[in-house]
Amino acid sequence: MPRYKESERKQIKTETRQMLLQSAIEAFAREGYEKANINQISKAAGFAKGTIYNYFESKRGLMLALIHETANAHLEYINDRVLREHGAERRLKRFFEAGWLVVSEYLPQLRILVHTLYGADEELKQELWQVYQPMHKLIREDIISLGIEQGIFRSVDTNFTTALIMNLYLGIASHADDDGRIWLDSDQVADFVLNALLK
Hints:
Layout: H1 2-31, H2 38-44, H3 59-82, H4 88-105, H5 107-117, H6 122-131, H7 133-149, H8 158-173, H9 186-197
Helix pairs in contact: 1-2, 1-5, 3-4, 3-6, 4-7, 4-9, 7-8
Protein backbone atom coordinates (compact mmCIF):
# COMPACT_ATOMS: atom_id res chain seq x y z
CA MET A 1 0.00 0.00 0.00
CA PRO A 2 2.72 2.60 0.82
CA ARG A 3 4.34 1.91 -2.59
CA TYR A 4 1.10 2.80 -4.34
CA LYS A 5 0.85 6.05 -2.40
CA GLU A 6 4.44 6.95 -3.28
CA SER A 7 3.87 6.24 -6.98
CA GLU A 8 0.66 8.27 -6.86
CA ARG A 9 2.52 11.18 -5.27
CA LYS A 10 5.21 11.01 -7.96
CA GLN A 11 2.52 11.02 -10.64
CA ILE A 12 0.90 14.12 -9.14
CA LYS A 13 4.27 15.89 -8.94
CA THR A 14 5.02 15.03 -12.58
CA GLU A 15 1.61 16.28 -13.71
CA THR A 16 1.94 19.47 -11.66
CA ARG A 17 5.39 20.17 -13.10
CA GLN A 18 4.06 19.69 -16.64
CA MET A 19 1.12 22.01 -15.97
CA LEU A 20 3.50 24.68 -14.69
CA LEU A 21 5.74 24.24 -17.74
CA GLN A 22 2.75 24.50 -20.09
CA SER A 23 1.63 27.67 -18.35
CA ALA A 24 5.16 29.06 -18.71
CA ILE A 25 5.18 28.23 -22.43
CA GLU A 26 1.96 30.19 -22.88
CA ALA A 27 3.25 33.15 -20.84
CA PHE A 28 6.69 33.26 -22.49
CA ALA A 29 5.12 33.00 -25.95
CA ARG A 30 2.57 35.74 -25.19
CA GLU A 31 4.65 38.20 -23.15
CA GLY A 32 8.25 37.17 -23.71
CA TYR A 33 10.56 35.65 -21.11
CA GLU A 34 11.64 39.00 -19.67
CA LYS A 35 8.10 40.31 -19.04
CA ALA A 36 6.44 37.07 -17.92
CA ASN A 37 5.58 36.99 -14.22
CA ILE A 38 6.34 33.79 -12.34
CA ASN A 39 3.41 34.24 -9.93
CA GLN A 40 0.99 34.72 -12.83
CA ILE A 41 2.41 31.57 -14.44
CA SER A 42 1.69 29.60 -11.27
CA LYS A 43 -1.84 31.04 -10.95
CA ALA A 44 -2.63 30.40 -14.62
CA ALA A 45 -1.70 26.75 -14.08
CA GLY A 46 -4.24 26.62 -11.24
CA PHE A 47 -1.84 26.73 -8.30
CA ALA A 48 -0.96 29.16 -5.52
CA LYS A 49 1.76 31.62 -6.47
CA GLY A 50 4.50 29.96 -4.38
CA THR A 51 3.88 26.48 -5.80
CA ILE A 52 6.24 27.01 -8.71
CA TYR A 53 9.25 27.17 -6.35
CA ASN A 54 8.63 23.57 -5.32
CA TYR A 55 9.54 22.57 -8.88
CA PHE A 56 11.83 25.30 -10.24
CA GLU A 57 14.27 27.48 -8.32
CA SER A 58 13.45 30.61 -10.33
CA LYS A 59 12.03 31.92 -13.59
CA ARG A 60 15.44 31.22 -15.15
CA GLY A 61 15.24 27.64 -13.86
CA LEU A 62 11.81 27.35 -15.48
CA MET A 63 13.20 28.67 -18.77
CA LEU A 64 16.16 26.28 -18.62
CA ALA A 65 13.77 23.35 -18.06
CA LEU A 66 11.75 24.51 -21.07
CA ILE A 67 14.90 24.74 -23.20
CA HIS A 68 16.06 21.26 -22.21
CA GLU A 69 12.69 19.53 -22.55
CA THR A 70 11.97 21.12 -25.93
CA ALA A 71 15.46 20.42 -27.26
CA ASN A 72 15.38 16.80 -26.08
CA ALA A 73 12.00 16.17 -27.74
CA HIS A 74 13.17 17.97 -30.89
CA LEU A 75 16.44 16.03 -31.11
CA GLU A 76 14.89 12.66 -30.31
CA TYR A 77 12.23 13.07 -32.98
CA ILE A 78 14.66 14.17 -35.70
CA ASN A 79 17.42 11.68 -34.80
CA ASP A 80 14.98 8.80 -34.84
CA ARG A 81 13.77 9.61 -38.34
CA VAL A 82 17.12 10.60 -39.86
CA LEU A 83 19.01 7.55 -38.63
CA ARG A 84 16.44 5.15 -40.08
CA GLU A 85 17.86 6.05 -43.49
CA HIS A 86 21.15 4.64 -44.75
CA GLY A 87 22.06 7.05 -47.54
CA ALA A 88 23.21 10.61 -46.86
CA GLU A 89 20.88 12.07 -49.48
CA ARG A 90 17.81 10.45 -47.90
CA ARG A 91 19.03 11.48 -44.44
CA LEU A 92 19.25 15.12 -45.49
CA LYS A 93 15.72 15.03 -46.92
CA ARG A 94 14.46 13.32 -43.76
CA PHE A 95 16.18 15.96 -41.58
CA PHE A 96 14.15 18.79 -43.12
CA GLU A 97 10.96 16.72 -43.34
CA ALA A 98 11.15 15.75 -39.65
CA GLY A 99 12.17 19.29 -38.70
CA TRP A 100 9.09 20.77 -40.34
CA LEU A 101 6.87 18.29 -38.44
CA VAL A 102 8.54 19.20 -35.13
CA VAL A 103 7.91 22.89 -35.79
CA SER A 104 4.19 22.28 -36.29
CA GLU A 105 3.96 20.21 -33.11
CA TYR A 106 6.11 22.40 -30.84
CA LEU A 107 5.49 25.82 -32.42
CA PRO A 108 5.16 27.98 -29.25
CA GLN A 109 8.21 26.35 -27.63
CA LEU A 110 10.35 26.70 -30.75
CA ARG A 111 9.32 30.34 -31.18
CA ILE A 112 10.46 30.95 -27.60
CA LEU A 113 13.78 29.25 -28.32
CA VAL A 114 14.35 31.19 -31.54
CA HIS A 115 13.52 34.45 -29.72
CA THR A 116 16.00 33.45 -27.01
CA LEU A 117 18.65 32.58 -29.59
CA TYR A 118 18.46 36.07 -31.08
CA GLY A 119 17.87 37.82 -27.72
CA ALA A 120 20.21 39.63 -25.37
CA ASP A 121 20.56 37.01 -22.61
CA GLU A 122 24.01 35.53 -23.28
CA GLU A 123 23.68 32.80 -20.65
CA LEU A 124 20.48 31.44 -22.16
CA LYS A 125 21.96 31.68 -25.67
CA GLN A 126 24.98 29.67 -24.50
CA GLU A 127 22.67 27.07 -22.95
CA LEU A 128 20.80 26.76 -26.25
CA TRP A 129 24.08 26.38 -28.12
CA GLN A 130 25.16 23.56 -25.80
CA VAL A 131 21.86 21.70 -25.77
CA TYR A 132 21.67 21.68 -29.59
CA GLN A 133 25.21 20.35 -30.13
CA PRO A 134 23.85 16.82 -30.79
CA MET A 135 21.92 18.22 -33.77
CA HIS A 136 25.08 19.83 -35.11
CA LYS A 137 26.82 16.48 -34.67
CA LEU A 138 23.99 14.66 -36.48
CA ILE A 139 24.25 16.98 -39.48
CA ARG A 140 28.05 17.07 -39.53
CA GLU A 141 28.82 13.39 -38.96
CA ASP A 142 25.73 11.40 -39.87
CA ILE A 143 24.75 13.36 -42.96
CA ILE A 144 27.57 15.47 -44.45
CA SER A 145 30.59 13.30 -43.53
CA LEU A 146 28.63 10.18 -44.43
CA GLY A 147 27.79 11.65 -47.84
CA ILE A 148 31.45 12.45 -48.46
CA GLU A 149 32.46 8.90 -47.43
CA GLN A 150 29.76 7.41 -49.68
CA GLY A 151 31.11 9.45 -52.59
CA ILE A 152 27.77 11.25 -53.00
CA PHE A 153 28.78 14.69 -51.66
CA ARG A 154 31.66 16.90 -52.65
CA SER A 155 34.48 17.36 -50.13
CA VAL A 156 33.39 20.37 -48.06
CA ASP A 157 34.27 22.00 -44.76
CA THR A 158 31.87 20.02 -42.56
CA ASN A 159 31.73 22.56 -39.70
CA PHE A 160 31.00 25.49 -42.02
CA THR A 161 28.39 23.48 -43.97
CA THR A 162 26.73 22.32 -40.74
CA ALA A 163 26.47 25.93 -39.54
CA LEU A 164 24.90 26.95 -42.87
CA ILE A 165 22.35 24.13 -42.75
CA MET A 166 21.42 24.93 -39.12
CA ASN A 167 20.98 28.62 -39.93
CA LEU A 168 18.88 27.79 -42.98
CA TYR A 169 16.74 25.41 -40.91
CA LEU A 170 16.24 27.88 -38.04
CA GLY A 171 15.65 30.84 -40.33
CA ILE A 172 12.95 29.15 -42.37
CA ALA A 173 11.36 27.36 -39.40
CA SER A 174 11.09 30.63 -37.46
CA HIS A 175 8.70 31.96 -40.13
CA ALA A 176 6.04 29.29 -39.62
CA ASP A 177 2.50 30.65 -39.58
CA ASP A 178 0.23 30.42 -36.53
CA ASP A 179 -0.84 26.90 -37.54
CA GLY A 180 2.79 25.75 -37.73
CA ARG A 181 2.85 25.66 -41.55
CA ILE A 182 6.13 26.61 -43.18
CA TRP A 183 5.94 28.54 -46.43
CA LEU A 184 8.60 26.39 -48.15
CA ASP A 185 8.18 22.67 -48.71
CA SER A 186 10.82 20.60 -46.89
CA ASP A 187 11.76 18.82 -50.15
CA GLN A 188 12.39 22.18 -51.84
CA VAL A 189 14.80 23.18 -49.08
CA ALA A 190 16.51 19.76 -49.04
CA ASP A 191 16.92 19.88 -52.84
CA PHE A 192 18.46 23.35 -52.59
CA VAL A 193 21.04 22.06 -50.08
CA LEU A 194 21.64 18.87 -52.07
CA ASN A 195 22.35 20.91 -55.22
CA ALA A 196 25.20 22.55 -53.32
CA LEU A 197 26.52 19.26 -51.91
CA LEU A 198 26.09 16.63 -54.60
CA LYS A 199 29.01 15.81 -56.87
